[in-house]
Specification:
By secondary structure, this protein is mainly α. It has helices at about 1-60, 65-85, 100-125, 130-145, 150-155, 165-195, 205-210, 220-250, 250-255, 260-305. The two termini are about 50 Å apart. The mean pLDDT is about 85. Keywords: Membrane, Transmembrane, Transmembrane helix.
Length: about 300
């Protein structure tokens, strides 16, 4: 009996130690996940700040008032990004936990703003880098500057009486930004095909990644996702043509788009090129999610039929 009790005590001690080790390991992994989430949120907030201040860093003509406004915008954008990504619950950012959707979009916007800032900087202090980027923009601008093209419409959005230098600057900026948007869309499609997104991204949480989409609002989820995907693609196709028209129509009320305001030119052209490609990506992503849900349904129905099939 004494030997049996001793063996029992040894077994309890060993299993108790293993349980305690598992608890400690789970606590450590939980703390490590929290640290990673906080560091990732800080890195994203820093990148957003860098995006907002890049034009001010590269342009020489930045007044004190403009710098203060930019600093305020950068602070609020960084705070919104940090609290969005540090939180476990959904917020405003779509596809937050489904890379590389937001990464491709952010990279496209950052490169667009950076290159536009370099183009404008080249009008003040030309360098080899600025001249090279302006040459690419001029080439793409001339290729895409044909009747009723988006680039032609952006050039026509300038006020009447604009100088040849201002028209050329707008053509370069519009051509380069439009090229970046097309390249980002192509890269996004390639990445989705290579990674088989979102099937290889782990479990896709619709509640977190699509916070504005309510699956319980009524109707079939797959049909609603496909409908929203088509709407986003159509709007993304039309926006490059509609934005210049809206800018031209609003010139009498809010003032015409002018290349004399460097910050306004950079952000207006960047938004004109980024928003359509972003909507295209959103529509493509929602279509992929709808296809994934439909495939999961087919697999579930097939398993159910096999389970209930007679032996």
């Amino acid at each position: 009996m004494g030997n049996i009790e001793a063996i029992r005590h040894i077994w309890r001690d060993q299993n108790g130690k293993r349980a305690r080790r598992r608890i400690v390991l789970n606590q450590f992994e939980g703390k490590l996940a929290v640290v990673r989430r906080v560091l990732g949120a800080l890195l994203r907030a820093f990148l957003v700040v860098l995006l907002v201040i890049v034009p001010s860093m590269l342009l020489p003509s930045v007044t004190a008032d403009t710098a203060q406004v930019i600093a305020l915008v950068a602070f609020f954008a960084a705070a919104l990004t940090f609290f969005e990504y540090v939180s476990v619950y959904p917020g405003l950012v779509e596809f937050r936990d489904a890379p590389p959707f937001n990464r491709v979009r952010f990279a496209a916007l950052f490169v667009t703003v950076l290159f536009l800032a370099l183009i404008v900087r080249g009008t003040y202090s030309p360098t080899i880098v600025t001249e090279f980027i302006r040459a690419i923009g001029a080439l793409i601008g001339y290729v895409l500057d044909f009747p009723y093209s988006p680039v032609r419409l952006m050039v026509l959005a300038l006020p009447a009486g604009s100088s040849a230098q201002e028209i050329e600057l707008m053509r370069e900026a519009a051509g380069l930004s439009y090229l970046i948007s097309l390249l980002s869309l192509a890269i996004f499609l390639i990445v989705l095909g290579v990674r088989h997104w979102p099937s290889r991204s782990g479990s896709f949480n619709v509640w977190i990644n699509l916070p504005t989409f309510d699956p319980t609002a009524g109707g079939d989820v797959v049909k609603r996702l496909k409908r929203d995907a088509r709407i986003n693609v159509v709007i993304g196709f039309l926006l490059p043509f509609l934005i210049p028209v809206v800018l031209k129509a609003a010139a009498s009320t809010f003032g015409a788009l002018s290349v004399e305001s460097d910050q306004s030119l950079i952000w207006a052209v960047a938004a004109w090129a980024f928003l359509p490609s972003s909507l295209f990506m959103r529509g493509i992503a929602m279509g992929r999610i709808a296809s994934m849900i439909a495939e999961k349904r087919r697999q579930a129905y097939a398993r159910a039929e096999l389970d209930h099939a007679p032996a």
